[in-house]
Design brief:
single chain, alpha+beta, three-stranded mixed β-sheet, 5 helices, YefM-like_sf, Antitoxin
């Protein structure tokens, strides 16, 4: 993360926004020597909010834990297993 003052952020704002959007770089902006703000790209912000919302949902967290345990136990299906199950269920043409 790059740290810069409010004055530097103001002077280079267009470049900072472009970099945040295209390279996923984050910029910490300081005011009077202390942290004041963080600039990050909109996609990164959206991902962060989505992650926070997911972490608030205990059912989703438990489903993730179950999935991890299943993978660790080797309870996985390859593409051919999935296709065969879908054909059997009538959800995929033969």
């Amino acid at each position: 993360m790059t740290t810069l003052s409010v004055a530097d952020a103001r002077a280079n704002f267009s470049r900072i926004v472009e970099s945040a959007a295209t390279t996923h770089e984050r910029f910490e902006v300081t005011k009077n020597g202390g942290r004041a703000a963080v600039i990050l790209g909109a996609d990164d912000y959206d991902s962060l909010i989505e992650t926070v919302e997911l972490l608030r949902d205990s059912e989703s967290i438990e489903a993730i834990r179950v999935g991890i345990r299943e993978v660790e136990a080797g309870e996985v299906y390859d593409l051919e297993n999935v296709r065969a199950a879908m054909r059997e269920a009538g959800r995929l043409a033969e």
